[in-house]
Write a structure and sequence with these properties.
- With about 400 residues, the protein is α/β, with parallel strands linked by helices.
- Helix content is about 35%, strand content about 25%.
- It starts with a strand and ends in a 5-residue tail after the last strand.
Protein backbone atom coordinates (compact mmCIF):
# COMPACT_ATOMS: atom_id res chain seq x y z
CA UNK A 1 0.00 0.00 0.00
CA UNK A 2 1.18 3.52 -0.74
CA UNK A 3 0.02 6.59 1.17
CA UNK A 4 -0.23 10.08 -0.23
CA UNK A 5 -1.16 13.45 1.08
CA UNK A 6 -2.67 14.31 -2.20
CA UNK A 7 -16.26 -12.60 -15.37
CA UNK A 8 -13.83 -15.24 -16.79
CA UNK A 9 -14.53 -18.98 -16.58
CA UNK A 10 -12.25 -21.95 -17.19
CA UNK A 11 -13.37 -25.39 -18.38
CA UNK A 12 -14.25 -27.92 -15.71
CA UNK A 13 -11.02 -29.85 -16.25
CA UNK A 14 -9.05 -26.68 -15.46
CA UNK A 15 -10.95 -25.94 -12.26
CA UNK A 16 -10.30 -29.19 -10.42
CA UNK A 17 -7.39 -31.46 -9.66
CA UNK A 18 -7.66 -35.19 -9.13
CA UNK A 19 -10.58 -37.51 -9.67
CA UNK A 20 -11.10 -36.93 -13.39
CA UNK A 21 -9.01 -37.38 -16.51
CA UNK A 22 -7.44 -34.28 -17.98
CA UNK A 23 -7.35 -33.78 -21.75
CA UNK A 24 -4.34 -35.01 -23.70
CA UNK A 25 -2.21 -32.10 -24.90
CA UNK A 26 -0.03 -32.28 -27.98
CA UNK A 27 3.53 -30.93 -27.89
CA UNK A 28 2.39 -28.01 -30.03
CA UNK A 29 -0.52 -27.36 -27.68
CA UNK A 30 1.78 -27.55 -24.66
CA UNK A 31 4.19 -25.08 -26.27
CA UNK A 32 1.30 -22.71 -26.98
CA UNK A 33 0.13 -23.00 -23.40
CA UNK A 34 3.62 -22.28 -22.07
CA UNK A 35 3.99 -19.24 -24.32
CA UNK A 36 0.55 -18.01 -23.24
CA UNK A 37 1.57 -18.46 -19.60
CA UNK A 38 4.74 -16.42 -20.17
CA UNK A 39 2.69 -13.63 -21.79
CA UNK A 40 0.15 -13.75 -18.97
CA UNK A 41 2.90 -13.62 -16.34
CA UNK A 42 4.52 -10.70 -18.16
CA UNK A 43 1.19 -8.85 -18.26
CA UNK A 44 0.58 -9.43 -14.55
CA UNK A 45 4.12 -8.33 -13.68
CA UNK A 46 3.73 -5.21 -15.82
CA UNK A 47 0.39 -4.40 -14.11
CA UNK A 48 2.00 -4.79 -10.69
CA UNK A 49 4.88 -2.51 -11.66
CA UNK A 50 2.58 0.12 -13.20
CA UNK A 51 1.15 3.14 -11.45
CA UNK A 52 -1.16 2.25 -8.56
CA UNK A 53 -4.85 3.07 -8.47
CA UNK A 54 -5.54 6.19 -6.42
CA UNK A 55 -8.32 5.32 -3.96
CA UNK A 56 -10.27 7.05 -1.25
CA UNK A 57 -11.84 5.27 1.70
CA UNK A 58 -15.40 6.38 2.47
CA UNK A 59 -16.56 5.47 5.97
CA UNK A 60 -14.91 3.60 8.82
CA UNK A 61 -18.04 2.09 10.40
CA UNK A 62 -18.00 -1.19 8.46
CA UNK A 63 -15.77 -3.75 10.18
CA UNK A 64 -14.51 -5.12 6.87
CA UNK A 65 -12.49 -1.92 6.39
CA UNK A 66 -9.85 -3.23 8.78
CA UNK A 67 -9.32 -6.41 6.80
CA UNK A 68 -8.88 -4.33 3.66
CA UNK A 69 -6.46 -1.89 5.28
CA UNK A 70 -4.38 -4.69 6.78
CA UNK A 71 -4.19 -6.41 3.39
CA UNK A 72 -3.36 -3.22 1.53
CA UNK A 73 -0.30 -2.50 3.71
CA UNK A 74 1.54 -5.31 1.93
CA UNK A 75 0.43 -4.46 -1.59
CA UNK A 76 1.36 -1.95 -4.29
CA UNK A 77 -1.74 -1.99 -6.53
CA UNK A 78 -3.38 0.93 -4.74
CA UNK A 79 -2.42 4.25 -3.23
CA UNK A 80 -4.69 5.52 -0.46
CA UNK A 81 -4.99 9.25 -1.05
CA UNK A 82 -7.89 10.12 1.23
CA UNK A 83 -10.15 8.85 4.01
CA UNK A 84 -13.57 10.41 4.57
CA UNK A 85 -15.33 9.73 7.88
CA UNK A 86 -17.55 12.20 9.79
CA UNK A 87 -16.70 10.68 13.19
CA UNK A 88 -13.52 12.41 14.41
CA UNK A 89 -12.78 9.67 16.95
CA UNK A 90 -12.87 6.95 14.28
CA UNK A 91 -10.60 9.05 12.05
CA UNK A 92 -8.14 9.49 14.88
CA UNK A 93 -8.12 5.79 15.75
CA UNK A 94 -7.54 4.81 12.13
CA UNK A 95 -4.68 7.31 11.81
CA UNK A 96 -2.97 5.85 14.87
CA UNK A 97 -3.60 2.21 13.94
CA UNK A 98 -2.45 2.46 10.31
CA UNK A 99 -0.04 5.41 10.55
CA UNK A 100 -2.06 7.59 8.20
CA UNK A 101 -0.87 11.19 7.78
CA UNK A 102 -3.43 13.66 9.08
CA UNK A 103 -3.37 15.42 5.71
CA UNK A 104 -5.35 12.58 4.05
CA UNK A 105 -8.13 12.57 6.66
CA UNK A 106 -11.39 14.36 5.81
CA UNK A 107 -14.73 14.79 7.53
CA UNK A 108 -16.79 14.58 4.33
CA UNK A 109 -16.80 12.76 1.01
CA UNK A 110 -17.14 16.01 -0.95
CA UNK A 111 -14.03 17.49 0.67
CA UNK A 112 -12.04 14.33 0.06
CA UNK A 113 -13.02 14.20 -3.62
CA UNK A 114 -12.15 17.88 -4.10
CA UNK A 115 -8.76 17.77 -2.39
CA UNK A 116 -7.46 14.20 -2.81
CA UNK A 117 -8.74 13.46 -6.35
CA UNK A 118 -9.12 9.67 -6.08
CA UNK A 119 -9.84 7.61 -9.18
CA UNK A 120 -12.07 5.29 -7.13
CA UNK A 121 -13.54 5.09 -3.67
CA UNK A 122 -13.98 2.04 -1.48
CA UNK A 123 -17.11 2.33 0.62
CA UNK A 124 -17.29 1.18 4.24
CA UNK A 125 -20.40 3.04 5.37
CA UNK A 126 -23.71 1.53 6.41
CA UNK A 127 -25.68 0.09 3.47
CA UNK A 128 -28.30 2.86 3.52
CA UNK A 129 -25.62 5.43 2.63
CA UNK A 130 -24.47 3.56 -0.51
CA UNK A 131 -26.95 5.43 -2.70
CA UNK A 132 -25.76 8.84 -1.49
CA UNK A 133 -22.10 7.94 -2.03
CA UNK A 134 -22.69 6.71 -5.59
CA UNK A 135 -24.76 9.76 -6.53
CA UNK A 136 -21.96 12.10 -5.41
CA UNK A 137 -19.15 10.06 -6.96
CA UNK A 138 -21.00 9.75 -10.27
CA UNK A 139 -21.10 13.55 -10.50
CA UNK A 140 -17.30 13.58 -10.21
CA UNK A 141 -16.64 10.59 -12.49
CA UNK A 142 -15.17 8.57 -9.60
CA UNK A 143 -15.65 4.80 -9.59
CA UNK A 144 -17.18 3.05 -6.57
CA UNK A 145 -16.46 -0.31 -4.93
CA UNK A 146 -18.61 -1.14 -1.92
CA UNK A 147 -19.03 -3.94 0.56
CA UNK A 148 -22.05 -6.15 0.03
CA UNK A 149 -24.98 -5.72 -0.36
CA UNK A 150 -25.54 -3.02 -2.96
CA UNK A 151 -28.51 -1.28 -1.33
CA UNK A 152 -31.28 -1.51 1.25
CA UNK A 153 -34.07 -1.40 -1.35
CA UNK A 154 -34.73 -1.97 -5.04
CA UNK A 155 -35.58 1.73 -5.40
CA UNK A 156 -32.10 2.66 -4.14
CA UNK A 157 -30.48 0.04 -6.37
CA UNK A 158 -32.17 1.46 -9.46
CA UNK A 159 -31.12 5.01 -8.52
CA UNK A 160 -27.54 3.75 -8.14
CA UNK A 161 -27.75 2.06 -11.55
CA UNK A 162 -29.02 5.23 -13.25
CA UNK A 163 -26.39 7.39 -11.55
CA UNK A 164 -23.60 5.02 -12.60
CA UNK A 165 -24.79 5.05 -16.19
CA UNK A 166 -25.09 8.84 -16.27
CA UNK A 167 -21.65 9.32 -14.71
CA UNK A 168 -20.05 6.55 -16.79
CA UNK A 169 -18.54 4.97 -13.69
CA UNK A 170 -18.08 1.42 -12.49
CA UNK A 171 -20.01 0.39 -9.39
CA UNK A 172 -18.74 -2.94 -8.05
CA UNK A 173 -19.87 -4.93 -5.02
CA UNK A 174 -17.36 -6.92 -3.00
CA UNK A 175 -18.28 -10.29 -1.47
CA UNK A 176 -15.86 -12.48 0.44
CA UNK A 177 -17.18 -15.50 -1.47
CA UNK A 178 -16.28 -13.97 -4.85
CA UNK A 179 -12.69 -15.02 -4.23
CA UNK A 180 -13.40 -18.64 -3.21
CA UNK A 181 -11.82 -21.18 -5.58
CA UNK A 182 -14.54 -23.63 -4.60
CA UNK A 183 -17.33 -21.39 -5.90
CA UNK A 184 -15.57 -20.88 -9.21
CA UNK A 185 -15.02 -24.62 -9.53
CA UNK A 186 -18.75 -25.21 -8.98
CA UNK A 187 -19.57 -22.58 -11.59
CA UNK A 188 -17.20 -24.27 -14.03
CA UNK A 189 -18.92 -27.63 -13.54
CA UNK A 190 -22.33 -26.10 -14.14
CA UNK A 191 -21.33 -24.19 -17.26
CA UNK A 192 -19.38 -27.10 -18.75
CA UNK A 193 -22.66 -29.08 -18.47
CA UNK A 194 -20.87 -31.64 -16.29
CA UNK A 195 -23.88 -31.84 -13.95
CA UNK A 196 -26.69 -31.22 -16.43
CA UNK A 197 -29.16 -28.40 -15.98
CA UNK A 198 -29.44 -26.93 -12.48
CA UNK A 199 -32.41 -28.20 -10.49
CA UNK A 200 -31.71 -27.01 -6.94
CA UNK A 201 -29.15 -24.86 -5.14
CA UNK A 202 -28.84 -24.61 -1.36
CA UNK A 203 -26.62 -21.84 0.04
CA UNK A 204 -25.57 -21.61 3.69
CA UNK A 205 -24.17 -18.37 5.10
CA UNK A 206 -24.04 -17.46 8.76
CA UNK A 207 -22.28 -17.32 12.12
CA UNK A 208 -23.12 -16.92 15.83
CA UNK A 209 -24.26 -13.33 15.34
CA UNK A 210 -22.47 -9.98 15.05
CA UNK A 211 -22.62 -9.26 18.77
CA UNK A 212 -21.57 -12.78 19.66
CA UNK A 213 -18.47 -12.64 17.45
CA UNK A 214 -17.53 -9.22 18.83
CA UNK A 215 -17.87 -6.80 15.93
CA UNK A 216 -16.96 -3.18 16.60
CA UNK A 217 -19.64 -1.03 18.33
CA UNK A 218 -19.94 1.29 15.33
CA UNK A 219 -20.50 -1.75 13.09
CA UNK A 220 -23.03 -3.41 15.41
CA UNK A 221 -25.08 -0.23 15.79
CA UNK A 222 -26.05 -0.09 12.12
CA UNK A 223 -26.15 -3.85 11.44
CA UNK A 224 -29.02 -4.01 13.93
CA UNK A 225 -30.86 -1.00 12.49
CA UNK A 226 -33.51 -2.02 9.90
CA UNK A 227 -33.23 1.31 8.08
CA UNK A 228 -29.43 1.32 7.80
CA UNK A 229 -28.96 -2.40 7.07
CA UNK A 230 -32.25 -3.22 5.30
CA UNK A 231 -32.87 -6.05 7.76
CA UNK A 232 -30.77 -8.33 9.93
CA UNK A 233 -29.41 -11.71 8.83
CA UNK A 234 -31.78 -11.51 5.84
CA UNK A 235 -29.69 -8.75 4.22
CA UNK A 236 -26.34 -9.36 5.94
CA UNK A 237 -26.09 -13.00 4.84
CA UNK A 238 -28.98 -13.52 2.43
CA UNK A 239 -27.15 -11.39 -0.14
CA UNK A 240 -24.43 -14.04 -0.56
CA UNK A 241 -26.83 -16.69 -1.75
CA UNK A 242 -28.76 -14.28 -3.98
CA UNK A 243 -25.48 -13.22 -5.59
CA UNK A 244 -24.24 -16.78 -6.15
CA UNK A 245 -27.57 -17.99 -7.54
CA UNK A 246 -27.89 -15.05 -9.94
CA UNK A 247 -24.33 -15.78 -11.12
CA UNK A 248 -25.01 -19.50 -11.58
CA UNK A 249 -28.18 -18.69 -13.52
CA UNK A 250 -26.36 -16.25 -15.85
CA UNK A 251 -28.32 -13.26 -14.56
CA UNK A 252 -31.78 -14.79 -14.81
CA UNK A 253 -34.24 -13.28 -12.36
CA UNK A 254 -36.40 -15.65 -10.31
CA UNK A 255 -40.12 -16.00 -10.90
CA UNK A 256 -41.04 -15.90 -7.21
CA UNK A 257 -39.46 -15.08 -3.87
CA UNK A 258 -40.69 -16.48 -0.55
CA UNK A 259 -39.04 -15.79 2.81
CA UNK A 260 -39.48 -16.63 6.47
CA UNK A 261 -37.63 -14.65 9.14
CA UNK A 262 -37.44 -15.00 12.94
CA UNK A 263 -36.10 -13.23 16.00
CA UNK A 264 -34.69 -16.15 17.94
CA UNK A 265 -32.72 -13.75 20.15
CA UNK A 266 -35.06 -10.72 20.50
CA UNK A 267 -33.26 -9.64 23.65
CA UNK A 268 -30.11 -9.13 21.52
CA UNK A 269 -31.59 -8.16 18.14
CA UNK A 270 -34.70 -6.18 19.03
CA UNK A 271 -35.39 -4.55 15.69
CA UNK A 272 -34.13 -6.97 13.02
CA UNK A 273 -34.34 -10.65 12.14
CA UNK A 274 -31.54 -12.99 13.19
CA UNK A 275 -32.72 -16.02 11.20
CA UNK A 276 -33.91 -16.08 7.59
CA UNK A 277 -34.69 -18.57 4.84
CA UNK A 278 -35.38 -17.46 1.26
CA UNK A 279 -36.82 -19.72 -1.46
CA UNK A 280 -36.45 -18.69 -5.10
CA UNK A 281 -38.21 -20.41 -7.99
CA UNK A 282 -37.17 -20.44 -11.64
CA UNK A 283 -38.87 -22.23 -14.56
CA UNK A 284 -36.87 -25.41 -13.94
CA UNK A 285 -34.99 -24.79 -10.69
CA UNK A 286 -35.21 -23.74 -7.06
CA UNK A 287 -32.80 -22.07 -4.67
CA UNK A 288 -32.89 -22.20 -0.88
CA UNK A 289 -30.86 -19.45 0.79
CA UNK A 290 -30.16 -19.96 4.49
CA UNK A 291 -28.97 -16.88 6.40
CA UNK A 292 -28.30 -17.01 10.12
CA UNK A 293 -26.96 -15.17 13.14
CA UNK A 294 -27.56 -18.27 15.25
CA UNK A 295 -25.14 -20.92 14.04
CA UNK A 296 -22.45 -22.28 16.37
CA UNK A 297 -19.70 -21.48 13.85
CA UNK A 298 -19.03 -19.48 10.70
CA UNK A 299 -20.22 -21.16 7.51
CA UNK A 300 -20.18 -20.11 3.84
CA UNK A 301 -20.80 -22.93 1.38
CA UNK A 302 -23.31 -24.18 -1.15
CA UNK A 303 -24.75 -27.29 -2.75
CA UNK A 304 -25.58 -27.36 -6.47
CA UNK A 305 -27.73 -30.24 -7.76
CA UNK A 306 -28.04 -30.86 -11.49
CA UNK A 307 -29.80 -33.49 -13.56
CA UNK A 308 -26.70 -35.69 -13.62
CA UNK A 309 -24.80 -34.99 -10.43
CA UNK A 310 -24.00 -32.54 -7.69
CA UNK A 311 -21.17 -30.38 -6.40
CA UNK A 312 -20.80 -29.21 -2.80
CA UNK A 313 -18.29 -26.50 -1.96
CA UNK A 314 -16.08 -27.07 1.07
CA UNK A 315 -15.11 -23.66 2.40
CA UNK A 316 -12.63 -21.74 0.22
CA UNK A 317 -10.65 -24.25 -1.74
CA UNK A 318 -12.25 -27.71 -2.03
CA UNK A 319 -15.30 -29.31 -3.62
CA UNK A 320 -17.13 -32.63 -3.32
CA UNK A 321 -18.55 -34.07 -6.52
CA UNK A 322 -20.76 -37.01 -7.36
CA UNK A 323 -22.01 -37.81 -10.86
CA UNK A 324 -24.73 -40.07 -12.21
CA UNK A 325 -23.60 -43.69 -12.36
CA UNK A 326 -21.12 -43.30 -9.50
CA UNK A 327 -21.83 -44.84 -6.10
CA UNK A 328 -19.63 -42.40 -4.19
CA UNK A 329 -18.53 -38.78 -4.18
CA UNK A 330 -14.99 -37.47 -4.53
CA UNK A 331 -13.44 -34.54 -2.71
CA UNK A 332 -10.83 -32.55 -4.58
CA UNK A 333 -8.99 -29.25 -4.54
CA UNK A 334 -10.21 -26.50 -6.82
CA UNK A 335 -7.70 -24.96 -9.18
CA UNK A 336 -6.61 -21.34 -8.63
CA UNK A 337 -8.82 -18.65 -10.14
CA UNK A 338 -7.05 -16.87 -13.02
CA UNK A 339 -5.70 -13.38 -12.33
CA UNK A 340 -6.95 -10.75 -11.85
CA UNK A 341 -10.21 -12.42 -10.79
CA UNK A 342 -8.56 -14.11 -7.82
CA UNK A 343 -7.88 -11.11 -5.64
CA UNK A 344 -9.78 -7.99 -4.61
CA UNK A 345 -6.99 -5.45 -5.00
CA UNK A 346 -5.66 -6.74 -8.33
CA UNK A 347 -9.20 -7.00 -9.66
CA UNK A 348 -10.20 -3.46 -8.73
CA UNK A 349 -7.09 -2.00 -10.31
CA UNK A 350 -7.43 -4.12 -13.46
CA UNK A 351 -11.06 -3.13 -14.04
CA UNK A 352 -10.55 0.59 -13.54
CA UNK A 353 -7.08 1.17 -15.00
CA UNK A 354 -6.63 -1.70 -17.47
CA UNK A 355 -10.17 -1.99 -18.80
CA UNK A 356 -10.64 -5.59 -17.67
CA UNK A 357 -14.27 -6.71 -17.86
CA UNK A 358 -15.98 -6.87 -14.44
CA UNK A 359 -17.01 -10.37 -13.41
CA UNK A 360 -20.69 -11.11 -12.89
CA UNK A 361 -20.36 -11.69 -9.15
CA UNK A 362 -19.47 -8.08 -8.45
CA UNK A 363 -21.22 -6.44 -11.40
CA UNK A 364 -23.87 -3.79 -10.96
CA UNK A 365 -26.44 -5.65 -13.08
CA UNK A 366 -26.13 -8.79 -10.96
CA UNK A 367 -26.38 -6.83 -7.75
CA UNK A 368 -29.47 -4.92 -8.80
CA UNK A 369 -31.08 -8.37 -9.14
CA UNK A 370 -29.66 -9.36 -5.74
CA UNK A 371 -31.28 -6.29 -4.19
CA UNK A 372 -34.56 -7.03 -5.97
CA UNK A 373 -34.51 -10.52 -4.41
CA UNK A 374 -33.74 -9.18 -0.92
CA UNK A 375 -36.39 -6.47 -1.21
CA UNK A 376 -38.99 -9.06 -2.24
CA UNK A 377 -37.83 -11.42 0.53
CA UNK A 378 -38.34 -8.72 3.14
CA UNK A 379 -41.86 -8.04 1.84
CA UNK A 380 -42.62 -11.75 1.75
CA UNK A 381 -41.59 -12.20 5.39
CA UNK A 382 -43.53 -9.12 6.49
CA UNK A 383 -46.70 -10.01 4.59
CA UNK A 384 -46.55 -13.79 4.98
CA UNK A 385 -46.94 -14.52 1.28
CA UNK A 386 -45.05 -15.46 -1.84
CA UNK A 387 -43.95 -12.50 -3.97
CA UNK A 388 -44.28 -12.82 -7.75
CA UNK A 389 -41.63 -10.73 -9.49
CA UNK A 390 -42.72 -8.73 -12.55
CA UNK A 391 -41.54 -10.00 -15.92
CA UNK A 392 -39.22 -7.01 -16.19
CA UNK A 393 -38.15 -4.10 -14.01
Amino acid sequence: MRLSAKGQTLPYSDWTSGGFHLPVISSFGLLSMLLSSVVMFSQVSTAQDAAPLRVGIVGLVHGHVHGFLEQSKRRQEIEIVGIAEPDAELRSKAAARYNFPRTILFSSLEEMLAKAHPQAVLVYTNTFDHRHVVEICAQHGVHVIMEKPLAVSLDDALVIQRAAQAGKIHVLVNYETSWYRSNHAAYGLVHDKALGEIRKVVVHDGHKGPKEIGVEPEFLSWLTDPKLNGGGALFDFGCYGADLMTWLMDGERPLTVTAVTQQIKPETYKHVDDEATIVLTYPHAQAIIQASWNWPFDRKDMEVYGQNGYVITVRHDDIRVRRAGSDHEEQMAAKPVPAPYDDELSYIRAVILDGVKPDALSSLDTNVTVTEILDAARRSAQEGRRIQLPASR
